């Protein structure tokens, strides 16, 4: 039975899990508060902090032998869906953040570091750079800045397959909208098993616990030239210090809901605005599918919240039935990707 260690760095957490085949042996979700992460100016600066937390977990549990290590893949060059072996070219691009900064850039780097220590191979599966766009979706209005496919591809694909299975259908014959609501937010129209568009979870669409989402461009350009920010600081403000963090100084939706229950009207306004923006983007993606939407699926950590999913549903249920698949299937999806390679059902792709 193959023993596989899966590592999933998200913007607000690092999830770790050990599997034997498809059986979960043990898992841990290490939440990272805003306070904990704010001292790191760039994502790559968090490498040792997250690596050491994982090493400590391995030591505490006396886990010392693995057949492979798999990490969530990052903002690499646009690529096909699949399982990739971590190689030098990938390490280089993850370190520089070839398509930008995000915690998932650390997945392949940490996986390789641990794999080298144990003399096994490291992989990534369905990274956030998976690109299945139709050409029309790439056009932005400025040729120098095409729209890009950056999204929670791993969970979106895994959940879409689960929905199809639960409905007794094939994804090839369905149109879905999957909204992954986590530290970042991806709203994805799926046409016959292809993710043909997305808001870009790092830079566009609704604001999220940590991200500003799309902003009025004129004012953003003015801010960029105000002399107050260098590039790295402004990028961090957009991707790590936007959304709930900017308005409410927390990336934890549970904390926001506590404040709302205690009567905080400002927290309520901001949280409702996030639901409103999510719903608006789902409406836009329904248009991409020309209204032919079989189901709308809400997933990711925020989908645990009945408050939020009810608010979103108020706006969108006229489009189609809303299904809630809270949390994510990312850890098992990572492991299954590697098992397909180790069992010789697929060949690992080369980056
Ligand atoms: N039960 C819950 N109710 C409301 N929000 C939740 C719940 N569980 C997690 N969250 C929120 O979900 C967000 C993190 O989602 P997750 O998908 O784990 O993100 P990531 O993988 O990007 O770190 C956080 O804002 C967290 O507070
Ligand atoms: C590139 C976007 C992926 C993303 O937003 O993931 P998190 O929700 O884990 O930050």
Automatic annotation (TrEMBL):
Transmembrane segments: none annotated. It is found in: Cytoplasm. Its main location: cytoplasm. Its EC number is 2.7.2.7. The keyword ATP-binding applies. Pfam families: Acetate_kinase. GO terms for molecular function: acetate kinase activity; ATP binding; butyrate kinase activity. InterPro entries: Aliphatic_acid_kin_short-chain (IPR000890), Aliphatic_acid_kinase_CS (IPR023865), ATPase_NBD (IPR043129), Butyrate_kin (IPR011245). GO terms for biological process: acetate metabolic process. It comes from the Bacteria. One of its GO terms (cellular component) is cytoplasm. Keywords: ATP-binding, Cytoplasm, Kinase, Nucleotide-binding, Transferase. It catalyses: butanoate + ATP = butanoyl phosphate + ADP. The keyword rRNA-binding does not apply. Belongs to the acetokinase family. This is Probable butyrate kinase. It comes from Anaerobranca californiensis DSM 14826. The lineage of its organism: Bacteria, Bacillati, Bacillota, Clostridia, Eubacteriales.
């Amino acid at each position: 039975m193959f023993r596989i260690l899966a590592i999933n760095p998200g913007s607000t957490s690092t999830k770790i899990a050990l599997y034997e085949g498809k059986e979960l042996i043990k898992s841990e979700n290490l939440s990272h508060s805003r306070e904990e992460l704010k001292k790191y100016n760039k994502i790559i600066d968090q490498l040792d902090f997250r690596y050491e937390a994982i090493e400590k977990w391995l030591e505490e549990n006396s886990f010392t032998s693995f057949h492979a290590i798999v990490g969530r893949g990052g903002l690499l060059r646009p690529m096909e869906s699949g399982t990739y072996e971590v190689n030098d070219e990938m390490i280089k691009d993850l370190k520089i953040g070839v398509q930008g900064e995000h915690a998932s850039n650390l997945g392949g780097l940490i996986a390789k570091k641990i794999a080298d220590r144990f003399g096994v191979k490291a992989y990534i599966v369905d990274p956030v750079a998976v690109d299945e766009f139709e050409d029309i979706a790439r056009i932005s209005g400025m040729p120098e800045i095409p729209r890009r496919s950056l999204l929670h591809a791993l969970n979106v694909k895994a959940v879409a397959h689960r929905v199809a299975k639960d409905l007794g259908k094939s994804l090839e014959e369905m149109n879905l909208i999957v909204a992954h609501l986590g530290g970042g937010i991806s709203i994805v129209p799926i046409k016959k098993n292809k993710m043909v568009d997305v808001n870009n979870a790092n830079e566009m669409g609704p604001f999220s616990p940590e991200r500003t989402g799309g902003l009025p461009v004129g004012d953003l350009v003015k801010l960029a030239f105000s002399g107050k920010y260098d590039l790295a600081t402004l990028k961090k403000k957009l991707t790590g210090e936007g959304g709930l963090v900017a308005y409410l100084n927390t990336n934890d939706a549970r904390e926001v809901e506590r404040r709302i229950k205690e009567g905080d009207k400002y927290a309520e306004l901001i949280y409702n605005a996030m639901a409103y923006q999510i719903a608006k983007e789902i409406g836009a993606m329904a248009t991409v599918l020309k209204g032919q939407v079989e189901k709308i699926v809400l997933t990711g950590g925020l989908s645990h919240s009945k408050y939020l999913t009810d608010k979103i549903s108020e706006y969108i249920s006229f489009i189609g039935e809303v299904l809630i698949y809270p949390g994510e299937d990312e850890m098992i999806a990572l492991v299954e990707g590697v098992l397909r390679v180790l069992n010789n059902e697929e060949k690992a792709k080369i980056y």
